[in-house]
Automatic annotation (TrEMBL):
<keyword id="KW-1003">Cell membrane</keyword>
<dbReference type="InterPro" id="IPR007554">
    <property type="entry name" value="Glycerophosphate_synth"/>
</dbReference>
<keyword id="KW-0472">Membrane</keyword>
<keyword id="KW-0777">Teichoic acid biosynthesis</keyword>
<dbReference type="Pfam" id="PF04464">
    <property type="entry name" value="Glyphos_transf"/>
</dbReference>
<protein>
    <submittedName>
        <fullName>CDP-glycerol glycerophosphotransferase family protein</fullName>
    </submittedName>
</protein>
<dbReference type="InterPro" id="IPR043149">
    <property type="entry name" value="TagF_N"/>
</dbReference>
<comment type="similarity">
    <text>Belongs to the CDP-glycerol glycerophosphotransferase family.</text>
</comment>
<dbReference type="InterPro" id="IPR043148">
    <property type="entry name" value="TagF_C"/>
</dbReference>
<keyword id="KW-0808">Transferase</keyword>
<dbReference type="InterPro" id="IPR051612">
    <property type="entry name" value="Teichoic_Acid_Biosynth"/>
</dbReference>
Amino acid sequence: MTASLRAWVLRVALPHLVRWARLVTPRRRLVVVCGVPSTEGNVVELVRALQRRYEGRIVWLDPPSAAFRAAQGVEVDGFPRYSRQGVIAYLTAEAVFFTHGLFGMPRRVPRKATVNVWHGSGMKVMPRSLLAERRVGGPAADLLVSGARVWGDYYAGLSDLDPRTEVAVVGNPRVDALVRPVAAERWKALGIDPQTPLIVWMPTFRVSTGAHEGAGWSDVAGGEAAGVAELGALLAEVCAAHGVTFVVKAHPLDAAARTIAGAVQIGDADLEAAGLALYELLGGADALVSDASSVWTDYLLLDRPIGFIFPDAEEYRAGRGIQPDDALDFLPGPMISGRAEAEEFVAEVLGDDAARGPGAALRARSRERFGIEGITAGGSADGVLDALAALPFPVAARLSR
């Protein structure tokens, strides 16, 4: 099979075939969840909530390791998505929760609920094909989850959904992990002293490896600016001088090496091996540094300092694009463009008044602009299930509080 034919089968033929199969197969008392990567926090937290509330079987497609599931307390059945058990579970489930393109994202069907929990709410422009396949047509989900009203409305438009009735702006489920205590031994397994102030740098990718989505691509006009790596190293140097642990958590699709001398390098495999969710790590951080990534929109809920290493912001705008157009004017923290800004940011993190320091007003302004007010970390997964229970689907009767 040629590459072009295979792409057509996966993106066009498969969604039609799968939708037809969902229509004609019986509905069983089970739900299916699937996330990319396998440890995707939105799905982990939904499984946790489903275990508490759902009166039926839970099947996890392409699940993380058994050790990670045990560490997270999410012991449910798991199968490869294209296995016989996985396909049958998907076709007959009374509800499906997914993040990325499951089985080509077929159109939704009656009586079997489909929930797109997506992968975060942020200022990256989203090509329509990332949320719905245009050649298939029609909504792929009955409910879309968002952590902010602005981006919930935006994604609804991309997904052919009504933002008033088919979008649950309850916070991304992964934010529930921000407030969950973490045992000291798990910090130590990552090489982190839990008694030391901690700043986490989470840059998004500029150039993709293409590991999950096919061929690689670039999101910035002209390629990544050299200043990204240099500013990351500078901030690490300032942190070391002030006794602050600096953690680098690169995006899994990042083609650039994010290795920095003196920093703690952490990847998805490290977190999985330690049995730690990414947002548990973030919940223990005193500050976050990011860019166009959606992670800062979630971290806003903690009202802690947020800084930005984004020297290529205009190149990003000219490449993939930024949405809404004024997003950069409402960032919840300072741009770190040199040593002076790095020193000021670290000083704020270490200050006694970090929650009311210079960045506090910026964070409040950002939450208001993007429609994040009213969301709190700790109950978003339940909020998703509450929203589904309010819809006219048979599964609603088995989502008890």
